[in-house]
Design a protein that fits this description.
Elements (H helix, E strand, L loop, with lengths): L10 H4 L2 E2 H10 L26 H4 L1 H17 L7 E6 L5 H10 L3 H6 E7 L3 H12 L6 E3 L2 E5 L6 E5 L12 E7 L8 E11 L18 E14 L23 E5 L15 H4 L8 E4 L1 H15 L12 E9 L9 E4 L2 E3 L9 E3 L2 E2 H11 L3 E8 H7 L2 H9 L6 H15 L6 H4 E8 L18
Helix pairs in contact: 4-5, 9-10, 12-13
Main location: mitochondrion
Keywords: Methyltransferase, Mitochondrion, Transferase
Function: Arginine methyltransferase involved in the assembly or stability of mitochondrial NADH:ubiquinone oxidoreductase complex (complex I).
C-alpha cells in the first residue's frame, strides 16, 4: 500500500513525478524502500523464499567462473604484485563475492596482491548479511569516513562497505577489478515518448500579407519528447492501460499509473537529445525510449578507474570491469519496466516498496558512456551469458563437481540442472536473456579477454 513508501504521497500534492523518481523511492528510499527496509528484517529478497533467484544463488560455479575471469585478467595484465582492488556494486547477499574470493585463494600470488575488497551496498540489512558470510557472524567491525570495515575469512583481506561508489577514492595507482551483477537493471530509468504538437506558423519578416487579414493563422506540425510520469490513481478510477507491462496473474490493485506529461520537462529537453540513437527516433511520433542516466554515470566511473581521464590521469591503464545483466545489445529498450514479487511478474505500480522493480539494460549506452569517459579503455561484448559461461568452462567444472567424493546422485543431478539453467539459450532462457560486457584497458584490439573470444595471455 502507499504507506510502505510514505514519500510517494507527496505526488498527490506536487503532481506526477518522473518514473526514475518513483523507482528510486520504491527501491532505495529512506522510508521503506524495497532494499532499505520495507520488506522487513525477517524476510529475504533473494532465494526460493524471496522474490527472485540470481545466478550465484543457482550455482556456486557462476561465482567461481567470475573469479577465474578476474584471475585471467590479472595474469594478462602482468600479475601486479600489489594495489589490486576488488569492487562489487549491488552485492546482494554476498554470495558472488564469497565464491569469487574462495576461488581466488587458490591462486596465492593474486590473493596476496589484493589490497582491499569494496562492497557498494545501500541496504544496512544486506550489509550485515554480507559481513556474516564474508567475515563470519561474530567478526568485529569498525566505522570510518569511508565506510564500515571488517576482515574477511579469506586470508585476512580487508573488506570495506560503502553506500556509494563515490566513497571509494579514484587512485590511479590502483588496479581495480569491478563486478556488477544484476545491478544496472535496478537503476532508475526515464521514459520518453515523441509527440506531435502544433505551433503557430510565423509570418516571414517582410511579408506583404496585410495585418488586417482575419484568416486563422496556419499551423505547422512539430515533434517533441514528452516524459512519462507516475501519478496516483484517483479514487474510483480504473488505472490507465497497463498492457505494456508483462504481468502474470495479479489481483493487487495498482495505486499509481503512467501518464504522459502535458508539456516538456527538464529531463525531456536534455536526455533524449544526448545521443544520435535517440534523436533519430524523435521524428516518428509515438516512439518510446528508455534512458538510464545512472547507468552511464557508473560506466563512466568504472572506465575512469581503469583507464584514467583528464581529471584523473593514469600513466598505465589497468584493471577491468565485468557487467552481467539482462538487456538489449542493439536496440534502445522500450516498455521494459517490470515488477517482481514471489517469483512472479506483477504490476510495477502496485504495492510500492514491497515489489522489486527493474528494467532492461541498454548495453550500447553503457559501452558508449565508458569509451567517452576514458580514452584508456575499450569495451568487449555484450555476449550472451550462455556463450560466456560455456567458454569459461562451466560444463567441465560441473562435471568435476558432480564426480567429487561424497557427492550423491541427487546432488549430482541438481548440479547438472543448475549449470544448464544458467546457459539455457531457449526463448527467455538465462543464457540468452542475460549478457556479459567487459571494460578493459585499451590495447588496440590486440587482446580479447577470455569469455569474449580470447585466451589467457601473459602480460
Amino acid at each position: 500500500m502507499i504507506s510502505h513508501v510514505p514519500s510517494l504521497t507527496s505526488s498527490q500534492t506536487t503532481g506526477p513525478v518522473p518514473l526514475a523518481s518513483y523507482m528510486r523511492m520504491c527501491l532505495t528510499g529512506d522510508l521503506g524502500g524495497y532494499y532499505t527496509g520495507a520488506i522487513g528484517q525477517d524476510r529475504d529478497q533473494f532465494g526460493a523464499k524471496g522474490d527472485f533467484v540470481t545466478s550465484p544463488e543457482i550455482s556456486q560455479i557462476f561465482g567461481e567462473l567470475i573469479g577465474v575471469w578476474f584471475i585471467a585478467e590479472w595474469i594478462s595484465q602482468g600479475r601486479p604484485k600489489d594495489g589490486v582492488q576488488i569492487i562489487e556494486v549491488g552485492p546482494g547477499r554476498g554470495t558472488l563475492m564469497d565464491d569469487m574470493l574462495r576461488t581466488i585463494q587458490r591462486f596465492p600470488d593474486m590473493a596476496s596482491s589484493i589490497e582491499s575488497v569494496f562492497m557498494v551496498e545501500a541496504s544496512p540489512e544486506l550489509r550485515e548479511k554480507q559481513k556474516a558470510l564474508l567475515c563470519g557472524p561474530d567478526a568485529p567491525s569498525s566505522e570510518s569516513k569511508s565506510g564500515y570495515h571488517a576482515t574477511s575469512k579469506y586470508g585476512g583481506i580487508p573488506v570495506v562497505w560503502t553506500e556509494t561508489i563515490k566513497s571509494i577514492p579514484i587512485d590511479t595507482n590502483k588496479v581495480p577489478f569491478i563486478v556488477a551483477h544484476e545491478f544496472f537493471d535496478a537503476l532508475p530509468i526515464h521514459t520518453f515518448q515523441s509527440a506531435r504538437v502544433t505551433a503557430p506558423a510565423t509570418t516571414p519578416k517582410g511579408s506583404a500579407e496585410p495585418a488586417s487579414n482575419n484568416r486563422t493563422s496556419p499551423t505547422k506540425p512539430e515533434v517533441e519528447w514528452r516524459e512519462m510520469m507516475v501519478s496516483p490513481v484517483p479514487p474510483g478510477v480504473t488505472p490507465a492501460d497497463s498492457g505494456t507491462f508483462r504481468i502474470e496473474k495479479d489481483d493487487t490493485p495498482a495505486e499509481f499509473q503512467l501518464v504522459l506529461s502535458s508539456g516538456t520537462t527538464r529531463h525531456s529537453r536534455y536526455l533524449p537529445e544526448s545521443s544520435p540513437r535517440y534523436r533519430k527516433l524523435k521524428s516518428s511520433p509515438d516512439s518510446v525510449i528508455e534512458i538510464c542516466p545512472d547507468a552511464s554515470l557508473f560506466a563512466s566511473d568504472f572506465a575512469t578507474r581503469i583507464g584514467g581521464s583528464p581529471k584523473h590521469p593514469k600513466r598505465r591503464p589497468s584493471g577491468a570491469a565485468l557487467i552481467l545483466d539482462y538487456g538489449t545489445s542493439d536496440t534502445v529498450p522500450i516498455n521494459s519496466l517490470r515488477g517482481i514479487r514471489q517469483h512472479r511478474l506483477v504490476n510495477p505500480f502496485a504495492s510500492p516498496g514491497l515489489v522489486d522493480l527493474s528494467a532492461d539494460v541498454d548495453f550500447t549506452a553503457v559501452a558508449d558512456a565508458a569509451t567517452l569517459a576514458s580514452e584508456g579503455v575499450e569495451v568487449h561484448g555484450p555476449v550472451p551469458q550462455g556463450v560466456f559461461l560455456k567458454s569459461m568452462g562451466i560444463r567441465q567444472r560441473a562435471e568435476m563437481l558432480a564426480k567429487a567424493p561424497g557427492i550423491d546422485a541427487s546432488t549430482a543431478t541438481n548440479i547438472d540442472k543448475s549449470w544448464k539453467r544458467l546457459v539455457d539459450q531457449g526463448p527467455g532462457g538465462m543464457g540468452k536473456t542475460y549478457k556479459a560486457l567487459a571494460i578493459l584497458p585499451e590495447n588496440g584490439g590486440q587482446r580479447r579477454p577470455v569469455g569474449f573470444g580470447g585466451d589467457v595471455a601473459e602480460g
